[in-house]
Amino acid sequence: MSIKKGTIPPRYDKAFKTGAVKMVTEQGRPSKEVAAELGICIDTLKSWLKRAGFQPGLTDKQNRNDKRQRELEAEIRALRKQLAQKNEVIDILKKSVGIFSKL
Q1: 3-state DSSP call for residue 3?
Q2: Exposed, middle or buried, 62 (CB in 10 Å: 0-12/13-18/19+)?
Q3: DSSP 3-state assignment of 17?
Q4: What is the pLDDT of residues 59-91, one digit of tens each?
Q5: Mean pLDDT for all residues in the chain
Q6: How far apart are CA 99 and CA 103, in angstroms?
Q7: Do 39 and 1 contact (CB within 8 A), yes or no?
Q8: How many CB atoms lie under 10 A from the CB of residue 28?
Q9: CA distance 17 to 77
Q10: Where are the domains of the chain?
Q11: Is the pLDDT of residue 3 over 70?
């Protein structure tokens, strides 16, 4: 969205601003993505975040860190599940070796 020089910038109501800030702070979405989706300037969104008491750069960094942590936790769960399955297979193989060695 480009604004020509000499034109009055658009006015946004409080609900729109609050919704944009929540998209970044509560949904954990990047500021650039939200600004592009809503068709607003990134600097406008950053000023709304500042007025709401957030630091835009830190908020984006925290969102990235939170997303990475969720990804790592999901990977840990998947690896633990794989490990448990492999341990079951090893136990079955140990038992079958024991049975065959008695024959």
Answers
A1: coil
A2: middle
A3: helix
A4: 888 888 988 999 999 999 999 999 999 999 999
A5: 88
A6: 7
A7: yes
A8: 16
A9: 38
A10: 14-102
A11: no
